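Table S5 (text form). Sequence records supplied for joint modeling of the two-component complex.
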Amino acid sequence: MIATLIRREFLEHVTSLRLSVLLIMTTGLLVTSAAYFSARYDSTTTQSPFVRPGASQGLVDKDGKTNLMMAPCTGFGLHRALSPLGFLAGAGEREFPDLVMVAPHGLKSIQRETKTGEAFEPAAPADWAYLIGVILSFGAGLLTYRSVSGERRDGTLAQVLANPVPKSMPLLAKYLAALLALAFVLTFAMASGVLTLIILGKVPLGGDDWMKLSLFWGTSILYLSFFVLLGLLSSVAGRSPMMSAAGFLLNWTLLVFIIPNLGGIIAGFDHTVLPPREISAMEQAISARYPEPPGTTLQQSSVIMLEREDASEALLIQHFHAMCGQVGTGERFARLSPSAVYAYAAEATAGGGLPRLIQFVDNAVRYRKGLFQAMLDADRSDPSSQHIYIPYRCGGNVFSPRNVDLGPAKEFRDLPPSSGESLLAAMWDLLLLGVYNLLAFAVAFTWFLRQDVAALPGE
Amino acid sequence: MTGILDIIRKELLINLLSLRFIIGLVVVMLLIGLVGYVLTLDYASRRQAYIAAAEQHSRALEDAKVYSTIKVEMDIPPNPLSLLSRGSKDLPVTITVSPYHVPTILDASGSGATISLDGTGDLPVNPLLRVFSSIDVGFIVGMIMSLFCILLVFDSFSGEKEQGTLRVLLSAPVGRLQLLAGKYCGALLSAATPLTAGLLLLVILWNISGLVTLTPADWLGLACMYAASILYLACFLALGILISLFAEESVTGLVHQLLVWVVAGIVLPAGAGYVAEFLHPILPETELIREADENYGRAYSNVRYQQTEGSWNVAYTDYAGPESFLGITEKEALNRVEYNKIIFPMKFALAEEHFHIRDAVQRSLERREEARNSLDAISPVAAYGRIVRALAGSDIGSYRRTFAAARNYRESLMEYLRPKVATAAWVTRVLDQPELQPTKENMSYWNERAKKEGEDVFLKEWWNWSRVKPLDLSAMPRPNLEVPGLRERLGDALFPCALLMVLTAGFLVMAGWKLLRYPA
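The corresponding structure-token record, covering 979 residues in total, follows.
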């Protein structure tokens, strides 16, 4: 019985003009977005000789050797490895820092490299999560707003309810049919987009990426399911299709546009980030905390300066984490909206977002420490050296002047998270989306079950 | 006339007392208040950073000791109207002019994109917050208020049709066009109410906080922005009424209007951006610059090779700093002048070459913008976005003019600096401060002191850059950055304004035609 109901509703959807419009619009935008990403992905990776994703540069020469004596005054950049799935949800990929400047003895800064012309782009390029999040969620409303209120107005709801099937069955059928129709649009549009990427051949999609794409598809279905339920709820609650449409529209605007956009503003009320002047004063206070009294030997001076560098690095990391915390505050507020939850889940799935940024900086710190230790070890094996490392001092005759291969320590590995790690990062958001679905399901079905055949108009 | 006024009054009252109006008013007021408050703080922070940077850059210029290191940094004052349209997150805040760099809009580097322990601002800055979409008053009007307009008028005629009151209205002693005008004006007044209230709230907020001071030109700009916003709302209302006239059911009208809104607000701007990128890709600046640098590098190496083979002492860096001034005798300084006369014009030529490359890239950027503007010209949302960005001075046109003004200034600066290359003061000041030269007498004096006081005396007293007096730059052209005035910004906003007017008029004409043809 339910299969018949679903088939009928589904056929009604797939033969409707609105689904065709949705299909064309979504496919067109996803395909162009994929092509755009493909073109940019290529230009981003080859933009500058210094951009070598996931690699260090500056300290290691082309033969893979490091001059120990020149190392103390050599700064170098560590670049974040780009995610080939940035087209899924690229806000963090695009906006978060992608470069960490490092000296062997400490982290210096965390930066974002600007790209030519981006200052005059009126809006950020739309990624798949944004396009699906706006257009298909709107489509969910289009498919469902009149499903109950329309039947009520036409007087057919009483017949449906009078059928010898459980009372919840018609609504369940409407829900599944609308979700199936949207899943069809989503699958077709995503497949077209992925096909575009494969044909263009510039974005290397590996085995793990297919898992992530499947995860993204599942996340999108979960997200669309919520809006289908919201549409049904509006339809159940509205006295007429017009009221249902207006109700859905108001909720959709609030959830898709207003709440997610307020995240940044709400984050501004979190005052954990200190002003630059205060941070600068704290850094100067570090020098006072580790003074070099007159008569300090070079050996002692080295120890004191390295302690200062460690303290400065710790302060920079603390400052960075305070900033991440502020972003987290904004994201927590924005998670009131399933749209934002979906965007964050999609981002985590694609291997981006705040957790990925923190992972990148952690990787950079770990690499820096390993490299520094390897340099000290290499110096210790040089009997002619006095084994005194002085930060920022190049060419001194107290540290080994050898050209050495630091082995695996010189390789900076910053790979995007695996599909398992992505799933783990997206887990809470997926659970939250599930909770939103359950809530919407419970409210919509309870409301619907309260409909009494006898009280319906036209009876 | 009384008839039309009555219709306006009736429509206005119906709208003002409706739930949708009250919800719209509350949402718009709340959003404008909240966003206005945050953007006011942001503006205050940018203003503070501007004042601090301008002072610092002015001090740095006064402290110049040789001509070759003169670098003029001109700070762009934040525009108070950027509170309404913030523009991109990476708009340039400083323009650097030097003999070795010709500014273009590609210098846009943004502020606060680096997390480090250096900084001077008193307000917290978090570059990670850029991950959130920026929301400003332009966005609230462009996206949220256009939806509000749809909600106001989606049933203006279709609702009357459904209730059967349209025929009654048409048989009343009021012309059909008057009826249309009455309904339209009533809706426009209703839509203008939250906008007016929101902007008033913003102005009160600015006055109370004292963080924003508006000049008469800013007030005029604000008034223009208000007028443009009304025009935009008028366009959406006209479109809504037109669809409502064609729709048999209100709900169908609503759905069609929403589809149009999604296409105009999201699909067209996003699609136009993609297509424009394909039609006019931005030239690969870095590769072209690298090529030019390699050519320059070869020429430069030749010159340096010739000089080291010859008698000139070029064991210094090209650029002046304490090291180029240390230990130079008068003869060496004069040798250096001959070297500079060859090498520095090459550097100026390289700067010009870089400029030509970057100018071509800038043009490709402008072509991309033009293509995007042509492709989404039919979208009122895109047109409105262009108007507010132009009026707030956050569009590409305003910055193009500002950078052109900076380049004009550089021209005059170069006229002043070019002859200085042939003077020793281009890189060293030993000629006018003989006590700093390493002559026999001076050296024995400093060696004696070093024996008594330690080697540090060379560094602390003799090789001390601060001993050199700053240059007299009274004849140097003063930096004067001319940011585009309101008239120029209005000029940029004119075309999209005209486009909005044409669209509005078109929708109204079609609505009038449809209503006139409606059976009596």
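Note: Chain A is about 65% helix and 5% strand.
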